[in-house]
Amino acid sequence: MAQLSTLAGDPEPPMAVGASLRVLVIDDDPTWLRLIDGWLAGLRRPAFAVACANSYASGLDRLLGDEFDACIVDYRLGRGGTGLELLEAARREACEVPMLLLTAQGADELDVMALRLGAADYLEKDGLTAELTGRAVRYAIERSRTLQALRESESRYRSLFEHAPYGIGRSCDRRLTTVNPALVQMLGYESAEALMNIDIGRDLFLDKAEFAKVFAVVRKKGAIVNREAEWRRKNGQPIVVRLSVRVLSAPGDGAWIHEALVENITEQRRLAAELRQAQKMEAVGRLAGGIAHDFNNLLTAILGYTGILHRELPGGQARTDLEEIHHAATRAADLTRQLLAFSRKQMLNPMVCNLRTVVDDACGLLRRVLGEDIHLTTASETDDPLWVRVDPGQLEQVLMNLAVNARDAMPQGGHLAIQTGPYLGDAGHTVLMPAGLWASVRVADTGCGMDDRTKAHLFEPFFTTKEPGKGTGLGLATVYGIVKQSGGYIWVDSEPDAGTAFTICLPRVAAPAQLEAPAVELPATKSGGETILLVEDEASVRKLAYRVLSRCGYEVLDASSAEDAACICAQRGADVDLLLTDVVMPDMSGAELARVLAARCPAMRVLYMSGYPEDELIERTGLAAGVPFLLKPFTPDSIARTVREVLDQAEARREPAAAAGAEGSR
């Protein structure tokens, strides 16, 4: 009977060059021990180092206690057990040394049993030679090392497959045959078996035509790399995936086998869309801010001159018409402020006001926004004022955003109710707010409502349920920010097909001692004979400021540019008490001009004016925070009062210094 792997003429197995191969020979016949030891010791390609054992017990101890590359064991070991039993015992102890069974007479049953128990080969003593023995041992060692390398490779692949952060799967036509845990989790299935039961084209691809295109390209080119597609999870939620697919085989029966690497890029795409949206909003915001700045210059002139004329005109129709012009300009100023709010460049101006009054004033504008098919009603739970400290313009923006959302939720028309009233804060509400007295405004619609998932993300920036191009996703995020900035809380109650109600609570404050009413007439303002250097490149604004300040008794030196202002200051020397300058000018900023003139007029005070808010000017021009600042559009009253305040503050600081100097000279 021939040996399993030692047929004459077999090629020599490739063996790595290195240290001697260690072989353990176990046989109770000392003749065969010496014979095999001599055979292997005489071989040099490669060299062998042989150890011998003459019994079952000693052989098993040596095999388990030392490291060997191979073992030759006689089938009949006499007392203690057979070679097959020793092989079984070694395998039970996880010994993976390749073992060759040495037999005096071969038998088919023995062959099968030896292989079944994991023998690497069996050798018949009859006709055995040194060459056959060495070749059999080398083959056994090489096969063992190859199998071990394959097992390690399989283990590494399995580990990579099981723990890969990307989905990996194999498919045969339209069915998945192998999937890793990441793919199961990505698609929301409870098990790999459940995922492998689906139809890829029907259950995975949102667009069946896209499925056909993808696999047509794969079968034509053999592979595709980084192709995006829309899939659906088990719950129907759409996701965007990046696919890399290759053909493994295309059997003759037409069963195509593919392997795919799948990456869920839904979040990446969402972030990319948000970035594009943010960039677009930033560009629009800059445009809006620039338009508002130029518009504020025009409104400054309109409001200023109508204020002056209102003071001079007697009663009658002309005065009434002028008041209408002034009212329209005031509304335009409000629109400009809203434009600045949209571009995130508004000046915050919190004041104590009646929440009911702010809501009532905003409803006129809301009715125009909502349209005729939406019925707007307002109500209050109390006739008493609800005093809060907020920026009325920002609160109007909150109501506007909520009303626009309600309008979009009622495309066929409906009812929008706005209700104000007191609110007793408690810890039992879903929103954790301290106990106490609050003023609330509730905005409720009869629209389509929202599910829990939508409500969970409602105030997140860029979250929107509208179609691309239909909404920015910033409206409710802005609402939340304004409410929180005002010290308030906001929450939503909504169910699908049951409408939506937003509740806003703001902290109540004490009633103001006196409410300021806007007046058109110039109030009596302390005049003075100080010298003011007025620098403004917009002619209409410069002429208005010159006229107002001149009528207040100041000597006004006007300049249309920083260069002209420097020339005037050089002529007058230190005889300038106040520099009133626009901040943003073509040739030099107001802050730079003030630094240039400070050397000639160290006692000169500076008052800046601009249509841009102070915080943006600090960023753009390096304007120091907290400097005196006049925001356009201003009225004759506001510019006269602000100029006087700046000059009086300078005078108040000079008086203690002068008194201290006089005391020190005594």
Strand element count = 22
Main β-sheet: number of strands, strand sense, barrel status? 5 strands, parallel
Distance between the termini: 134 Å
Oligomer: single chain
Give short descriptive properties of this protein.
alpha/beta, five-stranded parallel β-sheet, 22 strands, 45% helix, elongated
Describe the structure.
- Mean pLDDT is 80; it is low at 1-12, 516-525 and 662-666.
- It contains 20 helices and 22 strands.
- Strand 1, helix 1 (30-41) and strand 2 form a beta-alpha-beta unit.
- With 666 residues, the protein is α/β, with parallel strands linked by helices.
- The radius of gyration is 45 Å and the shape is elongated.
- The strands form 5 sheets. Strands 2-1-3-4-5 form a 5-stranded parallel beta sheet, sandwiched between helices. Strands 7-6-10-9-8 form a 5-stranded antiparallel beta sheet, sandwiched between helices. A 5-stranded mixed beta sheet has the order 12-14-15-17-16, covered by helices on one side.
Describe the secondary-structure layout.
Blueprint: E1 21-26, H1 30-41, E2 48-53, H2 56-65, E3 70-74, H3 83-92, E4 99-103, H4 108-116, E5 121-124, H5 130-163, E6 167-172, E7 175-179, H6 181-187, H7 192-195, H8 200-204, H9 208-221, E8 223-232, E9 238-249, E10 257-264, H10 266-312, H11 317-342, E11 351-354, H12 355-370, E12 374-380, E13 387-390, H13 392-409, E14 414-425, E15 436-445, H14 452-456, H15 475-485, E16 489-494, E17 500-507, E18 531-535, H16 539-551, E19 555-559, H17 562-572, E20 578-582, H18 590-598, E21 605-610, H19 614-621, E22 629-631, H20 636-664
Parallel strand pairs: 1-2, 1-3, 3-4, 4-5, 12-14, 18-19, 18-20, 20-21, 21-22
Antiparallel strand pairs: 6-7, 6-10, 8-9, 9-10, 11-13, 14-15, 15-17, 16-17
